[in-house]
Amino acid sequence: MKALIIGAGIGGVAAAAALKQQGIECEIFEAVKEVRPAGAAISIWSNGVKCMNHLGMGDIMDRLGGPMHYMAYKDGLSNSLMTQFSLSPLVEAVGERPCPVSRTDLQSQMIDWWGRQNIHFGKRLDSLEQTESGVIAYFTDGSCAEGDFVVAADGTHSKARKHVLGYEVERRYADYVNWNGLVDVDEEIAPHNQWTMFVGEGKRVSIMPIANKRFYFFFDVPLPLGLAEDRTTVKQDLKRYFNGWTAPVQKLIDAIDPQTTNRIEIHDIEPFDQLVNGKIALLGDSAHSTTPDIGQGGCSALEDAVVLGQCFAKTTDIETALKEYEALRRFRVKDLVLKARKRCDVTHGKNMTETQAWYDELKEESGEGIINGLKNTILGGPLA
């Protein structure tokens, strides 16, 4: 049995790893000639780390995961501490630590683990055709590949999605812009072992530790779509949006490198129930594109891969396995997308009365409520 995997991102390589465990031959096809991940880093929460362990890539997480032992919220303007707590109770409850990691390093090491020479780069999908014997993938360079089934992990702009749904979907703007990148650890900005967030005015500044003494940072600002801003104005833009904010935030802005700082207008896609059509299955962002507000985008792609492998462990009938995959994943991923959307709206001041109420709640938060929310999300995965 042979699977064609469309996309060599986190979801695509994870799917190949999961299917290989079941003795299924996999060919991976990647659109670009050189993978350049979108975004500087990614939160792999404990459910995602468990998936990486299950797929045989846990050592990658050990190497790349930052020492995130504590979590804190601070008032962005006054620098006053709203809440601070240890993440140890979460780790004890779910059985694994969270690992914020460099996205570039993660994708690169996953590709190396699979074998870079075993991936077909520069193969941009044009269309898919289902036949009596399997599926044919046609690429824009005029080539094609045949397999028994297709796993489409080709991202939020998926070309394969219409072959499952029968129509094109539109992405929904989440009404905020995110700037992200990496800087060296600086204790004057935040503790080296803590996820620190500064909040206020419906805006957010987040600092997470990753490996090699670096911080992953991001700034969120509610803004209209399509402003004429880019890397050349990043420091001026952030200084303007965070005028009057506390000294650590100003120090962070001064430390960033505009040439390696990404500016992303955040979108998601309205959840849909159909993830499979015959012998074509959607996985990762092609199936459930979400905002990053609960840190589950990459984790849910890893969960998809694990569940896909589990389904093929039960049967060698392709359509039966794929239908079970769809049944097991569609409600879980819809829930994650909508949870992220709800958190997005509260965090980014969609209704400032609700956002202010959240700020007030944070000042009374012991950590138990936040940890319970994280725990419930994590334990909803396939390896709880």
Write the layout of secondary structure elements.
Blueprint: E1 2-6, H1 10-21, E2 25-29, E3 41-44, H2 46-54, H3 58-64, E4 70-75, E5 81-86, H4 88-94, E6 99-102, H5 103-114, E7 119-120, E8 125-130, E9 135-139, E10 144-147, E11 149-152, H6 161-165, E12 172-184, E13 194-200, E14 203-210, E15 214-222, H7 234-241, H8 247-255, E16 262-268, E17 276-277, E18 280-282, H9 297-314, H10 318-347, H11 352-364, H12 368-379
Helix pairs in contact: 1-5, 1-9, 2-3, 2-9, 4-12, 9-10
**Tally of domains:** 1
Q: What would you say the CATH architecture is?
A: 3-Layer(bba) Sandwich
Order of helices and strands: EHEEHHEEHEHEEEEEHEEEEHHEEEHHHH
Our estimate of the beta-strand percent is 25-35%
Within the CATH hierarchy, at the fold level, what is the topology?
FAD/NAD(P)-binding domain
Radius of gyration: 21 Å
The main sheet comes to:
7 strands, mixed
Number of helices: 12
The CATH homologous superfamily name equals FAD/NAD(P)-binding domain
Structural class: alpha/beta
The top-level CATH class is Alpha Beta
Unreliable sequence segments = none
Indicate the overall shape: globular
For the secondary structure, the number of strands is: 18
User: First CA to last CA: what distance?
Assistant: 30 Å
What is the overall pLDDT average? 96
Considering DSSP H and I runs of 4 or more, what fraction of the residues is helical? 25-40%
Which sequence of strands runs across the widest sheet? 5-4-13-14-15-12-16
Family: Belongs to the FAD-dependent urate hydroxylase family.
GO molecular function: FAD binding; FAD-dependent urate hydroxylase activity; urate oxidase activity
GO biological process, one term: urate catabolic process
Keywords: FAD, Flavoprotein, Monooxygenase, NAD, Oxidoreductase, Purine metabolism
